[in-house]
Specification:
The complex is a heterodimer of chains A (298) and B (277).
Chain A lengths: L7 H36 L1 E4 L5 E4 L3 H7 L2 H32 L6 H8 L1 H4 L2 H11 L5 H8 L14 H25 L4 H9 L4 H12 L1 H16 L3 H6 L13 H11 L3 H30 L1
Antiparallel strand pairs in A: 1-2
Helix pairs in contact in A: 1-14, 2-14, 3-8, 3-11, 3-13, 11-14, 13-14
Chain B lengths: L6 H28 L4 H5 L13 H8 L3 H33 L5 H12 L3 H15 L5 H5 L6 H12 L3 H9 L4 H12 L1 H17 L2 H6 L8 H11 L4 H21 L1 H12 L3
The chains are: A mainly alpha (298), B mainly alpha (277).
Chain lengths: 298, 277
């Protein structure tokens, strides 16, 4: 049985607590929890935006439709391919950069400051710079051909367009994770390295048998954040392809598809169903990752 | 302790770190140099990083002849500055309440804040558009600012900060007859400067660099923020890389200046991220 009569100080605490929380509660209710419930509702309806917005309940039609939607399948394939390549690459690159910086090098701070610049830069600016460098006679092809390597039509060849985005985003995101790894590396006690030195471990062995295992919890964090982020790829695909996901759907991602259905094709119900499905996929992926992580440490 | 490294390994590491620094900087330097070159020099496919003909024309042109560019810059500043200011106050208030005020439902709200962190923005994208449409907030500053005026990540960060905040400070203020609200704004917030600094920078960058929200909410070209404007600009002036690069540089400068002056806060904010899980 709860105590219903509150003392004066408890009442004051309650009032103050909710006063301090009020902007947060308002925003969470109106722009997060409300919309999530609304999204679930939309996913089971067809939405008509013309004139007065109206809804028509269609049961699971929006979900069953995905199975026969060829572009949804392509978008899912592209996104999965993107996640599978980008997450491991950016994680390994971040770890190698952090470990190299942490090896007691002179100028460590300067390298760190420089490496971090792409992470601060807006996706729009990065896309502009890379679109320009990726031109058929742009900087990248000029450099490649000057050292005798093959050149590509980076943006207009369907077989390389998504890879062009991957290269750019790995380059832009790895430094953020590098800083996280650096902070963790500085927390590994020197005595562990000294002990392994006494056992005659080489620098590579120390990295592999001391650094990597000690960083496992941070790696789990970096991978989960990476998976969540890569599944949501949108800005770069949209800008590279002018919103189309082209050439030939090669840069079409799930979020870009959701955007197209919602805002170009006026099929908001189907778009909401796709968004809910994506959220579930991300949730399951994070869950599997956590599970694997746990098994590995036991 | 680490000075017994073999020299070969050290040399190899320096080569690796230096090459990666070049890979990082080259695109920016290339873009910066292009922003000072006339168009014909850019398209001649030369590899000179220093312009043969140095010119400020690209910058002058985007500010004087591209009428909407200054407007986009202004829109971005308004949204990012007001949005950041609201976040600083509201996230700190919520973090403080969750850490230090024992109000009924506190645990439940804390769990809700954590749960909200997990929801991908795409789920709320379509319904939020419909809500903002009903409110008549499409193509308005409040349409971008109000839904983003609190941030669960930073509420959580401020809560962690205030949990470890010395109790004696508040007690002393209470003895001096200061109300809780007075204590919070006049004593607690000023003492939370390092945490607030880190939060402010990341929230500002979030607003400044956000592409998807303004793309959806701002359909009228005069209400675009810089990222959306830059993209539209590129579609219209696809071959005028000199203007696009000048616009990109103007866009990057504020964040770069923040980074140079407040570098310590950046690193603090990020290392907090690592301890967050």
């Amino acid at each position: 049985m709860a105590k219903w009569k509150l003392s004066k100080s408890q009442l004051r605490d309650a009032g103050q607590g909710y006063l301090f929380m009020s902007p947060t509660i308002f925003t969470i209710l109106v722009f997060l929890i409300g919309p999530i419930l609304f999204a679930l509702f939309l996913a089971f309806n067809n939405v008509n935006l013309l004139g007065q917005t109206s809804f028509e309940f269609v049961w699971f039609d929006n979900f069953t439709r995905m199975a026969s939607d060829e572009r949804a399948l392509i978008a899912l394939q592209n996104t999965a391919f993107y996640v599978v390549i980008v997450v491991p690459t950016q994680t390994i690159l971040a770890l190698v950069l952090a470990a190299s910086l942490n090896a007691g090098m002179k100028g460590e701070k300067w390298f760190r400051v420089i490496y971090f610049i792409p992470t601060l830069t807006s996706s729009a600016v990065l896309v502009m710079i890379f679109m320009w460098m990726y031109r058929p006679d742009g900087l990248i092809n000029t450099i490649l051909s000057s050292v005798g390597l093959p050149t590509y039509n980076w943006m207009n060849d369907p077989s390389v367009a998504l890879i062009s985005i991957m290269i750019m985003n790995i380059w832009a995101t790895a430094p953020m994770f590098m800083v996280i790894y650096l902070a963790a590396l500085q927390g590994i006690s020197d005595s562990l390295y000294e002990a392994s030195e006494l056992d005659g471990a080489s620098a590579i062995q120390k990295f592999w048998y001391v650094t990597v295992p000690m960083l496992r919890p941070v790696t789990a964090f970096v991978v989960i954040i990476g998976v969540i982020g890569t599944f949501q790829l949108f800005d770069q695909s949209y800008m590279f392809s002018g919103g189309s996901g082209g050439p030939n759907n090669s840069t079409l991602t799930v979020v870009l598809l959701i955007y197209q259905y919602a805002f170009s094709n006026n099929q908001m119900g189907y778009a909401a169903a796709l968004a809910v499905s994506l959220a579930l996929i991300i949730l399951v992926a994070t869950f599997i990752q956590r599970k694997l992580q746990k098994e590995e440490t036991h | 302790m680490k000075n017994k490294k073999p020299n070969i390994l050290k040399a190899f590491l320096y080569i690796f770190l230096t090459s990666y620094a070049v890979v990082t900087l080259l695109p920016f330097l290339w873009a910066l140099s292009a922003s000072f070159k006339p168009l014909n020099e850019i398209l001649s496919a030369g590899l000179n990083i220093f312009p043969e003909t140095f010119t400020f024309d690209n910058y002058v042109t985007i500010f004087t002849e591209q009428a909407l560019f200054p407007r986009w810059l202004l829109n971005s500043v308004i949204v990012a500055v007001i949005g950041t200011a609201l976040n600083i106050v509201f996230n700190s208030m919520a973090g403080y309440a969750l850490a230090r005020v024992s109000f009924p439902g506190r645990t439940a709200w804390f769990i809700i804040v954590l749960a909200v962190l997990m929801i991908p923005a795409q789920v709320t994208m379509v319904p939020n558009f419909l809500i903002l449409k009903e409110l008549g907030w499409l193509n308005s500053y409040q349409g971008l600012i109000v839904p983003g005026m609190v941030n669960a990540t930073f509420i959580f960060m401020m809560r962690q900060f205030f949990v470890n905040f010395p109790k004696e400070v508040e007690e002393a203020a209470a003895i001096d007859g200061l109300s809780r609200i007075g204590t919070f704004f006049r004593i607690v917030m000023p003492m939370a400067k390092p945490a607030i600094g880190a939060m402010a920078i990341f929230v500002f960058m979030g607003f400044w660099n956000n592409f998807m929200a303004p793309l959806i909410i701002m359909t009228d070209a005069s209400m675009y923020t810089l990222p959306v404007g830059l993209n539209a600009f590129q579609s219209d002036y696809a071959t005028y890389w000199n203007y696009i690069m000048a616009a990109s540089m103007v866009f990057t400068l504020p964040v770069l200046l923040l980074y140079i002056f407040f570098n310590q806060y950046f690193m603090k904010g990020l290392s907090f991220g690592a301890g967050e899980k």
